[in-house]
């Protein structure tokens, strides 16, 4: 991912990555 030192623009990126990882975990773990 792109790390920008200009401001808190990296926060949404971390949120997106966390959501993607959570989605992958949900797909791999059947309920």
Automatic annotation (TrEMBL):
This is Uncharacterized protein. GO terms for molecular function: actin filament binding. GO terms for cellular component: Arp2/3 protein complex; cytoplasm. It is found in: Cytoplasm. It comes from the Eukaryota. Signal peptide: none annotated. InterPro entries: ARPC1, WD40/YVTN_repeat-like_dom_sf. Keywords: Cytoplasm, Cytoskeleton, Repeat, WD repeat. The keyword Repeat applies. The keyword DNA damage does not apply. GO terms for biological process: Arp2/3 complex-mediated actin nucleation. It comes from Nymphaea colorata.
């Amino acid at each position: 991912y792109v790390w920008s030192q200009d401001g808190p623009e990296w926060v949404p990126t971390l949120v997106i990555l966390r959501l993607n990882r959570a989605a992958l975990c949900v797909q791999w773990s059947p309920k």
